[in-house]
């Protein structure tokens, strides 16, 4: 019996040593970041800001692979099937936490991933084409009561989509038609007057606002955006307590060694606090707060539950 125990202990220690050795050499080949949204989306912008510098610090190429579609579920499904060895990461937005309640079959569950780090957050922004006769959220709602309106969003399942459904259908009791786009094409569609109303994260709308092609109506966070201080919040516009945002975060397939997750967390934390990166984030109304994988995991549980409640209250559903 003693010999059996000794043999089992030897095998365990040998395996542990092999794993530790492999992790110690990490990374030995290029790392892939699967981005669940197209080029130009905020998710993509953050992934590329981090990816270039992560490659420099780890001494390996970091390849960005955009796999957009179905509100971010396609990219999540691709990353879920990858080996949990630290060589595939997923970059997704808050849509990842929304879709597990919104879609009947999203093709993944949150338990398929381990949180690496919560990246920057940004308000969602409601805006209109300059020809729309509304300068505030209440004026826009009043217009929607008398005129059939449609709105462009960052895509089905994204927080801009969910926020619009909550505000108009659930809270204001107004019918409005959803037209899903991608984040950059949603802003462009409204700027081109193809759709009168839009809601995306702040970054895709910024160039159009600066060019005078869009008018900002309201931001969804509890506080106003430092980038758009003159734009009222949804809470200030007749819906006290309303507070939502979008985050852009990194995940790894479940089973990825903890040492690798911790190392990636440390490196990305450092990168997102570099002066040149912070300057870029500030210009896009993106705010980063350092965090650990454990802190992100705890926050994620709260987010998933909160979005499940919003999906139920808004009546939004994708089969």
Verbal overview:
The protein has 319 residues and is an alpha/beta fold. The protein has two domains: 24-121 and 247-314, Bordetella uptake gene, domain 1 (D-Maltodextrin-Binding Protein, domain 2, 3-Layer(aba) Sandwich); 124-237, D-Maltodextrin-Binding Protein, domain 2 (3-Layer(aba) Sandwich), CATH 3.40.190. Helices cover 45% and strands 18% of the residues. It contains eleven helices and eleven strands. The strands form two sheets. Strands 1, 2, 3, 4, 5 and 11 form a six-stranded mixed beta sheet that branches. Helix 4 (95-102) crosses helix 11. The longest helix has 23 residues, at 2-24. The radius of gyration is 21 Å and the shape is globular. The N and C termini lie far apart (56 Å).
Secondary-structure map:
Layout: H1 2-24, E1 31-35, H2 42-58, E2 62-66, H3 73-80, E3 88-93, H4 95-102, E4 113-117, E5 121-122, E6 124-129, H5 137-146, E7 150-153, H6 159-171, E8 177-180, H7 183-191, E9 197-201, H8 202-210, E10 214-219, E11 246-253, H9 258-271, H10 275-283, H11 293-314
Parallel strand pairs: 1-2, 1-3, 7-8, 7-9
Antiparallel strand pairs: 3-11, 4-11, 5-11, 6-9, 6-10
Helix pairs in contact: 4-11, 6-11
